[in-house]
Design a protein that fits this description.
The protein has 219 residues and is mostly beta strands. The protein contains two helices and twelve strands. The two termini are 21 Å apart.
């Protein structure tokens, strides 16, 4: 039986390896205070936007596009999920999407199984699964709300071009990368909540994403 709520984000920890070529996060103590009847700490997080499981807003690739704080909540909260299962396929083409009508307004999550390699050098290497540009074309035409993947990147990082980022973000469709536990999300009946802190001026930011199937969670 599936869990009512499934965690879809990797935890962030001090010094962890994340996106290739970018520094890992630093989690430190900014201040500790000992008072008469309590002790409290103020922690500090120094991180780039592409850390752990993160979301890309349109401004990540298009300067005139919405930043993280401007992402429409209707694309991120209580959105019906359509799962795309492609484990074992490295180059994912549009044939896996099925009837475009079933994607309309949905959160399309691509389960590659790559998250099983999280924390290894293989996970961050060029052999990760990715979507070809024709998939992005089809997703834009289907008016999807958001696209997520449990791989390092939605595009082929061995090439300088990023067709899926360009097309999806130009259409205002956010991208969630480096997700986890997509194997635990049912094929039908689940909904997505994926909320980053509303930071202005950033095009990428870590987020807490969950899938839920119990209608009593939000009434």
């Amino acid at each position: 039986m599936s869990k009512a709520i499934v965690e879809l984000s990797h935890p962030i920890s001090d010094g962890m390896l994340t996106y290739p070529g970018l520094p890992g996060p630093r989690v430190t103590s900014h201040a500790e205070r000992d008072l008469v009847d309590m002790t409290y700490e103020i922690a500090r997080l120094d991180t780039v936007g592409k850390t752990g499981t993160y979301i890309d807003a349109p401004s990540h690739f298009h300067s005139e596009g919405a930043d993280i704080a401007e992402l429409p909540l209707e694309r991120l909260f209580n959105v019906p999920i359509v799962m795309i299962r492609v484990a074992g396929i490295r180059v994912v083409g549009p044939d896996v999407l099925g009837d475009p009508a079933r994607l309309w307004g949905k959160a399309v999550l691509v389960h590659t199984g790559w998250s099983a390699r999280w924390g290894t050098s293989e996970y961050r290497g060029p052999g990760h699964p990715y979507l070809v540009g024709e998939v992005a074309d089809a997703l834009v035409a289907a008016n999807v709300a958001v696209v997520g993947i449990d791989s390092l990147d939605i595009d082929d990082t061995s090439l300088p071009t990023r067709p899926c980022h360009h097309m999806l973000l130009r259409a205002g469709i956010p991208i969630i990368e480096q997700m986890t536990n997509l194997d635990a999300v049912p094929d039908v009946g689940a909904r997505l909540v994926a909320l980053p802190a509303p930071v202005r001026g950033m095009g990428s930011f870590p987020l807490r994403a969950v899938a839920w199937t119990d209608p009593s969670v939000f009434g």
